Amino acid sequence: MAIEFSERIRRMPVYPVAGGYADEAPLVRLASNESPYPPLQEVRDAISRALPSLNRYPDPSNSLLRRRLSERYDVPASRIAIGNGSCDILLAAGEALLEPGAELVHAWPSFSVYPHLSAASGARAVTVPLDLSERHDLDAMLAKITAATRLVVVCNPNNPTSTALPLADIARFLAEVPPEVCVIVDEAYCEFNLLEDPDASIELLDAHPNLALLRTFSKVHGLCGLRVGFALCGSEELPRALDQVRQPFFCNALAQAAALEALAHQDAVIDRVALTVAERNSVGERLAALGIETAESQANFCWLHLGSEHDETEVMRGLQERGVLVRAGRALGSQTPALRVTYGLPEDNDRFLAALAEVLQPAPAR
Ligand SMILES: Cc1ncc(COP(=O)(O)O)c(C=O)c1O
């Protein structure tokens, strides 16, 4: 007899993981929106300094990290939640807010973890298509909020489409959302968004106790291997509830040490954003020269449309054969052939573009 699993396991989608982890040949890894830049030397030194104390549990309250984040963002430490990556905060929010009979509203295509929140809790997922520019349609999302809605997630910039909304649109949206509905604005990529000062959204917190801004050390700080994220919240209730549903010590000691040090190097963040934006512009121009349509990226990745004449699976295979790993659009919710491609180092991007040009070439006439 096979093991009998819970009903929710049957409901839960399997997270679409990137391939290539078992490959030994050097690969161009552009599939997971990671930073191509390794952690700063100062951050690596901080991790080394934390190693001898690993016989001790980490600070379960993440006190020092919350204090430094509080100083950096001018949000009281009691309104800051830490997570084992920002995914951990999303899943905890699902657990704290959702249950059968409740509703979760989010856009689609958007980050592939959001459907887990409804599936895990038994809440109803209300998904709202993106607009024609592949951005969130906030009016359509507002129209879907009912008395059963407990949580709305807005991903800005949106993964996988890379597009961002102006903050004024989000402010207008928040003004219309009932105050008892929690809104998470997932800002994993906000540092790469040139439409706005990444800190501008923080001002919204004071007017909206139901708002949480989700941030991460995984992307611009290049620390996704350690797993540490945080949420800046409009009230103390949400961080408290998030902590209630999680195991103690969810953020490990090395992650806390690394994040603390990373925060002290904002200049490096600015430099890295500038490098990424330069690659974003260059890759965008070269994709356009290949005749490929892309969404307007405000992130560290692009979302490109292959055109209906191309088979997405074949293109993925062709790229993989050439040592280039990207993400297939269909697995991320696209209805048409698409790819999500992270900007890498200049040489990675060159290799991706050369491989793509080869793969998309029409077969020679016989
Ligand atoms: C929109 C979005 N939010 C959150 C995350 C989670 O990041 P992490 O758990 O590494 O902080 C990701 C990761 O790709 C993402 O794309």
Question: If you had to describe this structure to a student in words, what would you say it looks like?
Answer:
With 366 residues, the protein is of the alpha/beta class. It contains 13 helices and 13 strands. A seven-stranded mixed beta sheet has the order 2-8-7-6-5-3-4, with helices on both faces. Helix 5 links the parallel strand 3 and strand 4 (124-129). Helix 2 (41-50) runs antiparallel to helix 10 (253-263), helix 11 (266-289) packs parallel to helix 13 (346-360) and helix 12 crosses helix 13 (346-360). The chain is globular. The structure holds pyridoxal-5'-phosphate. Residues 33, 85-87, 111, 155, 159, 186, 188, 216, 218, 224, 229 line the site of pyridoxal-5'-phosphate.
Structure keywords:
366 residues; 13 strands; alpha/beta; Aspartate Aminotransferase, domain 2; 2 domains; 37% helix; four-stranded antiparallel β-sheet
Tell me the total number of β-strands: 13
Bound molecules: pyridoxal-5'-phosphate
List low-pLDDT spans: none
What Rg, in angstroms, do the CA atoms define?
A: 21 Å
**CATH topology name of the largest domain:** Aspartate Aminotransferase, domain 2
Total separate domains: 2
Number of helical elements: 13
Portion of residues in helices? 25-40%
CATH-defined architecture of the largest domain: 3-Layer(aba) Sandwich
Mean pLDDT: 95
Q: Strand count, sense and closure of the main sheet?
A: 7 strands, mixed
| Overall 3D form | globular
Please indicate the percent range of residues in DSSP E strands (runs of 2 or more): 15-25%
